[in-house]
Structure formats: C-alpha cells, structure tokens
C-alpha cells in the first residue's frame, strides 16, 4: 500500500477589506465579507503523513515540535479531516515557512491552507476549491482566502458550506505589491483569535458590520476598474474602521506604535502631495503593509527604508495559491 502522504504549499495573504469578528466563533463564520490578495514569494510548505501505528498526532513547525494550544489547534483541524474521510489514525505534520513570524504577515492563513490541502490529499479526498476554502476557514478564518489565487473574495455565508473564498480577478489583471514596513518584531499580546471574540464588545462593531458590504463592493469595483485612488480610499477607510473597533472594545486593543502612525501620515503624504499610487493597511500588529502599483513600488520602497523606526522592508508581489507539490 502506498503511504498516505502529501505535501502542499500555500501563501499568506493581505486583506484589503478586513475580517474582524465572527457570527459564529467555533465555525469561524465571519461577521462581514473580506477581500485579499496572496503574497507570491512567501509560502508555508506542509507535509502530512497519516498512519495507523501512531498513538497521537505530532506537529513540527520550522523544526520544533509543537505543544499546548498550538498543537491542539492543529489536532482539532485534523479531526475535521478524519471525520470527512472516516479515517481512524493519526498524522505526522511537518511545516516550514520561508517568512519569519513577527513581521506582521499572518502565518496562520498560510499554515491552515497548506495543512487543509495536504491532509485531505494524503487521504485521497478530492475536495473542490470551494470545499477546501471552507475547510481551511475552520482552522483560521483568513486561511479560507489563501486557497484560491489572485484577488479573492470571502463571503460571509449562512452556513459552513456557504462561507468560502474565490478568485474574482487574476493577478495579471493588476500585479499590486505589498511592501511590509516592519517597525517591531515582538510578538503581539492579543492575537487575532482573541481579538475576533472581543470585536462585538465595541459599540462601533455594529456600525462596521452594517457598512461592510458597501466597502466590499467599492473595493471589488476599484480592483476591477484598476482605479487606484478609489482603492486607496476604501482600503484605508476599512482599515481605520477596523482599528476603531479594536481600540474601543473591552479590553481595548491598540496595535499601533508611534512608528505606525508616522507611516500612516507618510503614506498619505506620498499619495496626496506627490501623486504616488500607494496606500496603507494594518493587521493585528504595529507593522504597516504599504500597497503600491508596480510602477510606484521601487521609489516607495527606497522611501520607506529612510523612515525613522523602520527596521526592515519586505517586498511581496500579488500571486500564488495553495497547491500540491512534490516533497
Ligand atoms: C486583522 O484569520 O488570523 O488580519 O481565524 O482566529 O485565525 P483566526 O484569525 P485570522 O484574522 C485575521 C485578522 C486580520 C484581518 C484580515 O486578515 O482580514
């Protein structure tokens, strides 16, 4: 019998319209729809091997055995796959990322997208892209968006099957660039999973949800029309609304550092004063994702390196999707 093993790679993604808060935390059914693109050069590569002679699942992340909550989260995800395939046995999971954690690039999205594809393929399950995206969502919400390629929309949906992400424009359509300005490498105190659970305690979250579909539609249309000015306005608006919710929940989450705010002003100045095609968006941490057109990227990257407090700038181009690879 051939070994029940498969290797998959998946990229992280950057959201242009954000996911923050769930209608159902256990199933990660989001309170609002979101839009992102994958980051091509970055990837998590995961090998899953299922065996009947193991006493438990084991998980290696960048060479170190996982334990505690990190291990439990993966085991819980493997349980979904075991149930889908009616398989009784355990898995060895070996995962490597080519991008460091603590750079403000969500590692859970790439990790659960690669895990979902490798774990199902190893058992011979042939899931559609939509089914795979919904499965990845159970592990980490944003992982749903790392399954398809190009510009991706993740729908809220009414139930597990309906909440998945799909491509609505190709990367070739608009090869945008994400310049990640790293201002801190320390680990965030409150991760996104706890953050989603706090979102509803903000008096602003209801207003954010009520207006999310309109921003989603505006962003999608701006991408389809390659209208950067319109994209910049809606991306920054959506980002600011999310951070307003974060700042006003119980407990309040203030991810920005002084350098974060300095970069916000800088990016706006480059766009408004110098006419550059550039805008910012920030996840659950202090580092700033500076989104630029290919024409603007080189000069902006050089500018970013000169901003006080910027430790490093990592460049990632839009592209990539989860795929099976030969180990
Ligand atoms: C701020 O997908 O990381 O980056 O489902 O708990 O793993 P979990 O949360 P996660 O949340 C991402 C939050 C965000 C915005 C976004 O990527 O849309």
Written overview of the protein:
This protein has 327 residues and is of the alpha+beta class. α1 (68-85) runs parallel beside α2, α2 packs across α3 and α5 (205-224) packs antiparallel against α6 (228-247). It has a six-stranded mixed β-sheet with strand order 8-7-9-6-1-16. The chain has a four-stranded antiparallel β-sheet with strand order 2-5-10-11. It has a four-stranded antiparallel β-sheet with strand order 13-14-12-15. The model has no long low-confidence stretch (mean pLDDT 95). The two termini are 19 Å apart. The chain contains eight helices and 16 strands. β13 (278-281) and β14 (288-292) form a beta hairpin. The structure holds ligand DP6. Ligand DP6 binds next to α2 and α4.
Question: What does this entry show, briefly?
Answer:
With 327 residues, this protein is α+β, with helices and mostly antiparallel strands. The chain is built from eight helices and 16 strands. The strands form four sheets. A six-stranded mixed sheet has the order 8-7-9-6-1-16. It has a four-stranded antiparallel sheet with strand order 2-5-10-11. Strands 13-14-12-15 form a four-stranded antiparallel sheet.
How would you sum up the global shape? globular
Helix run count: 8
Largest sheet: 6 strands, mixed
Class by SSE composition: alpha+beta
Termini, distance in Å? 19 Å
Q: Provide mean pLDDT, rounded.
A: 95
Strand elements, count: 16
**Largest sheet: spatial strand order:** 8-7-9-6-1-16
Strand content: 15-25%
Uncertain residue segments: none
Approximate helicity band: 25-40%
> Radius of gyration, rounded?
19 Å
Write out the distinct hetero groups bound to the structure. Answer: ligand DP6
- Helix-strand string: EEEEEEEEHEHHEEEHHHHEEHEE
